[in-house]
TrEMBL record:
Protein name: VWA domain-containing protein
Domain of life: Bacteria
Keyword Transmembrane helix tagged: no
Lineage, uppermost ranks: Bacteria, Bacillati, Actinomycetota, Actinomycetes, Kitasatosporales
Domain named VWFA: residues: 336-523
Keyword Signal: yes
Bilayer-spanning residue ranges: none
Length: 527
């Protein structure tokens, strides 16, 4: 009897040992995790997590994880991923609401998208805004003039780039709320984006390019944690000044998402461990990200206040329009705007003074936030056509500096008024100029702004303009839109009709609270 019991005990021991050593792909202590590249910095903590919780995270780093596309596909991959750990899931939540609905998510750390300035750029910006905190508007203004040349990850491919773009666009809208479709105005971001010199498909590649090509960019827009790591990592000759724009930032909370409800027990162990105060301190010191637990005191540079939190769009069409307008950072040609300006006799005096002020404001005289975002920018091609009873003058400049803006101001300041108003002749002339530009450079966006204070009383009739317009190439008709500015006694009905025919829209400079400056800022060159 005693011998049989001993043999049975030995068999059971051997069986248990064999099972323990055999391994199993379905080991319940392993979570297969789809991860964004920004989580790789936490690798040193994962062994400690496994030893203390019994759960091993099998990390699958994918460059596009934060865009939401890989995460949406994870729900259809037969359970290859059981959890996801991203810098942000906002794009996923917005674009794939059905897939996101009901997923358990736990924020694990925080980092805002901010700006790092090389010393030369910091000095230039502070000289223009002495004693003031810098804003996104200050940065957009400096980018438009070429003072700031920045690097930013591609917003179509990375969470950091998308958060940066949303932050800038939200600040430009100035509403204090989430972006609406009406807020996504292309003229507000064209000057800002003209300053972009470096882009990349991942944050890591962006940081490498920035450090490897020090003369290319003097600013970097990315997570606060990335900038702190650069400053402490010995890769820079001079440390960056970190600017947390006073008009707000978009905050990443690095959520851990449960994709497979059957793995809830393992998920709960992981998030409980990550949210411990002691682990939050380790994350803060390892990744230089802010703790999510308010009970954990922030250390060093992380003690700096965050300021306002900017909202993420709550509609996917707004996000898609924003990305579409920003375009491909690698393939970018500055726009051309053709301004058709009424110089008939009725524009003399106060009206001409208002027109000249509008151009001065677009050239940098307007110090407001909206003025900073809407100003003429480096590389932009501007054509001014003065007309009366016929075309009086045409001048084109490409903005490279103050001299070009002075040339533009001189054309608008010039006298020589006409004795009639040939609105449709001028618009037909504008389309000839635009057609030649489109034919020469199809990738360049060209648009027309028509400003008049009177009704057509010379030159061709509207019907003849339409006949000539319809005879133009499909490429011109598709690409070039007209944006009339109604002023004074202009025929609003006719201008709206022309805008509708050409795919643009009219703005009324005589509306309550408006002006020529406000009208030009609203629609100049907007597609």
């Amino acid at each position: 009897m005693r011998g049989r019991l001993g043999a049975l005990t030995l068999c059971l021991t051997l069986a248990m040992t064999t099972a323990a050593c055999s391994g199993d792909d379905e080991d319940p202590t392993t979570l297969r995790v789809l991860a964004g590249p920004d989580l790789a910095v936490l690798e040193p903590l994962l062994d400690e997590l496994r030893s203390e919780t019994g759960v091993e995270l099998e990390m699958d780093y994918q460059a596009d994880a934060d865009t939401g596309e890989a995460l949406a596909a994870a729900g259809k991959d037969g359970g290859r991923h059981e959890a996801a750990w991203l810098s942000t899931d906002r794009s996923f939540q917005l674009r794939h609401k059905d897939a996101a609905r009901g997923l358990l998510r736990t924020p694990t750390m925080l980092s805002p998208v901010v700006v790092g300035l090389r010393p030369d750029a910091a000095r230039a910006l502070h000289a223009k805004s002495p004693g003031d905190e810098l804003s996104w508007a200050d940065l957009a203004d400096a980018a438009a003039t070429g003072t700031v040349r920045f690097g930013m990850a591609d917003p179509r491919q990375t969470g950091t780039g998308l958060a940066a773009l949303v932050g800038v666009a939200t600040a430009a809208a100035g509403t204090g709320g989430a972006l609406r479709e009406a807020d996504v105005s292309c003229d507000r971001l064209r000057g800002f984006r003209s300053g972009q010199r470096i882009t990349a498909a991942s944050t890591r590649d962006l940081l490498d390019d920035f450090t490897d090509r020090p003369g290319t960019a003097n600013a970097l827009i990315t997570y606060e944690s990335d900038l702190l790591a650069l400053n402490s990592g010995g890769r820079l000759k001079e440390k960056l000044e970190i600017v947390r724009p006073k008009d707000g930032t978009v905050l990443a909370d690095f959520p851990l998402l449960l994709l497979d409800p059957d793995r809830r027990a393992a998920y709960d162990k992981v998030v409980a461990w990550l949210r411990q105060d002691s682990v939050q301190r380790k994350i803060m010191r390892t990744a230089q990200r802010r703790p999510v637990n308010p009970s954990v005191a922030r250390e060093g540079p992380l003690r700096a206040p965050l300021g306002n939190a900017l909202f993420f769009p709550d509609r996917p069409d707004v996000l898609e329009r924003l990305l579409d307008d920003y375009g491909d950072p690698r393939r970018r040609v500055a726009d051309q705007v053709v301004f058709l300006l009424d110089f008939s006799g009725s524009m003399r005096g106060a009206r001409m003074a208002e027109l000249r002020k509008a151009f001065a404001d677009l050239s940098g005289a307007d110090a407001s936030a909206t003025g900073a975002f809407a100003r003429f920018y480096q590389g932009e091609r501007l054509t001014v056509v003065r007309f009366g009873g016929h075309v009086l003058e045409e001048r084109t400049v490409t903005v490279r500096g103050r001299r070009d803006l002075r040339t533009l101001a001189d054309v608008v300041a010039r006298g020589g008024y006409g004795d009639a108003t040939a609105v449709w002749t001028a618009l037909d002339h504008g389309y000839r100029t635009a057609s030649a530009a489109v034919a020469a450079e199809p990738e360049r966006s060209v648009s027309i702004v028509l400003m008049t204070d009177g009704e057509n009383n010379a030159g061709i009739a509207y019907e003849e303009f339409v006949r000539r317009y319809e005879a133009r190439s499909a490429g011109t008709r598709t690409a070039v839109h007209t944006y009339p500015v109604h002023f004074g006694e202009a025929d609003a009905v006719a201008l709206r009709r022309a805008a509708a025919r050409t795919g643009g829209r009219m703005v009324d400079a005589d509306a309550r609270g408006s002006s020529l400056s406000e009208a030009f800022k609203e629609i100049r060159g907007c597609r």
